Amino acid sequence: MPKRVDHEERRWQIAAAVRRIAADRGLEGVSLNEVAAEAGISKGFVQHYFASRDDMLRYAATTLRGGVEERIASAGEPGVRDLLVALLPLDDAARDDALVANAFLVRALKDPAIAGHFRTGHGQLRDAVAAMLAAARDDGTLVSTVDPPAEAASLLALVSGLGDAVLLGYQSGEEAIALIDLHLSRIATTQGKTR
């Protein structure tokens, strides 16, 4: 009986090879030959699933959120702070995810499909943080004057900048977390914390 091939799993494996190369050498290092070698398959096999390098990169861009989602899920029922901390490059896997995301961010400036993926993902994340902030405001954990959508946008901008600072080494992970805590303490009531 012939072996069943899970085509989506194969595409995911190729995308994982793209991400590994991008984490190490940026997207400049991603070619069909390099991806085939990294994935341990033939170039023809890569071409079977992706007609071009652009198609392969666009698909790989749709797989970027996996690591962040795993870190958030591992926090159990995360609070705002847990979610924000999960976005920081605090260990090797998170650092690789951030390097890959930054490589794709540069590509997104010229590729509307990848840019659209970034906008959609950011919007979903902003909405999730805003909903968590609204719930915390409603249960008295945050001051009543908090504007959840504006605060979510501000917090995500803060974390984005802190992530780059950690990657570049001019902030430590501990310093970045302390700055998140400082910002959250400014909107917290004395009754609770946003953890």
TrEMBL record:
One of its GO terms (molecular function) is DNA-binding transcription factor activity. Coiled coil: none annotated. Residues 31-50 bind DNA. The keyword Transcription regulation applies. InterPro entries: BetI_C, Homeodomain-like_sf, HTH-type_TetR-like_transc_reg, HTH_TetR, Tet_transcr_reg_TetR-rel_C_sf. The keyword Nucleotide-binding does not apply. It holds the Pfam family TetR_C_6. Residues 8-68 form the HTH tetR-type domain. Keywords: DNA-binding, Repressor, Transcription, Transcription regulation. PANTHER family: HTH-TYPE TRANSCRIPTIONAL REGULATOR PKSA, HTH-TYPE TRANSCRIPTIONAL REGULATOR RUTR. This is AcrR family transcriptional regulator.
